[in-house]
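Repro case for the chain-ordering regression, as requested:
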Amino acid sequence: MPKQIRVALAGNPNSGKTTIFNNLVGARQHVGNYPGVTVEKKEGSLSYNGFEIKVIDLPGTYSLTSYSIDEMVARNFIIEEKPDVVVDIIDTSNLERNLYLAVQFMELGVPLVLAFNMSDVVEKKGINIDVKHLSDLLGVPIIPTVGHKGKGMKELLDAVIEIADQKKKSEVNIRYGDEVEKEMEKIQGLIKEESITINGLSPRWIALKMLENDKAVKEKIRSPKIISAAEEGSRNIQVITGDIPEIIIAEKRYGFISGACQKSVTRTVEERRSISDRIDKVLANRFLGLPIFLALMYLVFHLSFTYSELPMDWIESFFGWLGETVTNLWPKGEESVLKSLLVDGVIAGVGGVLVFLPIIFFFFFFIAILEDSGYMARAAFIMDRIMHKVGLHGKSFIPMLIGFGCNVPAIMATRTIENKADRFTTIMVNPLISCGARLPIYALIIPAFFPERLHTEMLWLIYIIGIGLAILGAWVLRNTVFEGESAPFVMELPPYRVPTIRGILIHMWERAWLYLKKAGLIILTVSIILWFFTSYPKPPESQFRNLSGEQKNEIELSYSIAGRIGHGLEPILKPIGFDWRIGTALIGAFAAKEVFVSQMAITFAVGEEGGEEKRDESLRSKLRDKYNPLIGFCIMLFSLITAPCMVTIAVTKKETGSWKWALAQLFGLTALAYVITFIVYQAGLILKIGIG
Amino acid sequence: MAKKMNLSELYPGEKGRVLKIIGARNINKKIVDMGVVPGIEVEIEKVAPLGDPVDVKVKGYHLSLRKEEAEGILVELI
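-- result from build under test --
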């Protein structure tokens, strides 16, 4: 049995941590969640020199406070799970700020190895680091690595094994200034007096965190005596120094790092403008920045949709063919529930899940490039002014934009937003951005009820109502549910880097896999339920005599659970101008919005002969006979606002980690759709608009 | 005596030394964790196309701050 070592991989965002993780474990990795939170947890393992090394990738963080979920998750993992070694990946070209996290690990006293990553970049910049000397000063091993070239991995593993073998803990001796030290001593005394322990952490660390006003540690301490001592100490420090302890402590940490670096880092050439800065001169330029950003977004949008169309068609055709083949192979006269379940339920359902894969692949291919190259931070930098006005974050812009294509990858793309309130607000209002699948509904309704000269205007109007409601929704959420949780826009603009193909592929694969694993089952289940609702119960054969196929279909749908719900809902639907046909079609449309059109065709007994265009034309004339432009507009409005489809809801469940948000989105949007459509319809009736 | 001002009042290309951090507590914590501590030299690198946020050079890297956050950082012009 090989000896096991558990290694936690820590580091700043953009330090190249992911690349090193991939180097170490390769394909032997899997993604999960930390318990109770939506923070992603990646784990992997490798065998090396007779050791079985398990690597846990911690979230990328700059610090170990209790202010952000990521930092809490990283800290709790280290405190509670006690990994054998913590490897902190340091971006050497940004040494001092990266060492800030390392120093906090040393304060915790964990067994530590530092990987000085991107050491080649530093050499090129003319910065010389005496690694040996710095390692002695800090008392921890330092291994130079070059992540994207795979250099230094062996040495890193050797150091990990050595530290694990010796069980050597790191330590650091920072003096936080007389005032802070004095108060810390008092608190330490009280901790010892009451013999309080938290997971074996040193009293000095607890005292430090108490003065740093750390919520999580305060909650665990519970002793009112210690809490009031910490509060008093904090006030004393503020009175004497004029600063809150958090600032002084951070200042001393940085002072310590600066001191160590001064003794070991020398510059051989004057710092000059880096290539990255020169690229930024163009890409984030005052005048060019915005047009370049919009052009890039157009390109990403255009390419992902153009290229995913074909594979999506293939998938649809394949499942269509599969369904037909199974139908044809089925023994004649034996058409049972089983056949219908298999063809219309399972095969159609699996097809409905897989059809989203091309779009997820393509979008995340481009998103990974934007992310890994460092441009994503610039996009947020450029758009933050506008997004902040509506209560969102600069990083919310791209997910909102993707929403015009499809809300599913859009909601998945919110992962780059660190702050929970920003991220959840973006997820909740995203469906109000009118996705591509709603377009067939507008394309059916607009020509049916509105003169040609108004077609473009009507379409614009619908989209703008969606955007307006999304902005309003974000504002309302920010002022109710997420009140006062606004996150500071303190964000690093990392240097531009050439993304690695391997990194991009892993990123795409992860997204697609998570979609299939987490959302796939929900989607399949709901589509089978919807199939059942729209197919059962069957009307008695006696009703079918002398009827055409289309008329049969209409009777069947009307007789089914969905049809009955549609009929049953008529009293509720009447005030918004809908009848059972529209209601039934809307139930079917929960599978996918565009299904509304084919469901309407069934309720009007319009056949598929002559292709979709002909079907739509005859459907339009039936709609004109039955309804008026006001109702037509209300159908579009309701389709726009109500929950787009079960896939979106399933992805919201997956991304927020709870049914609470998914159901709130489903029912919230449906209620909003009802209220707004009600107001519009009633106002139209009173003002006599569009009812002629 | 150097001129004291808020970081948000500096123009691109101007440098300052941080004297004091005076904003809201949770924002401060994040700002100091990112290395903007008293005594450090900061430079306004550029302003976003729409006028906010700003790109501040700190310890050789770029940090983006909203103007309302930069207002909480007191600097002396150098």
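Ordering looks correct now. The CA atoms of residues 69 and 394 of chain A lie 19 Å apart.
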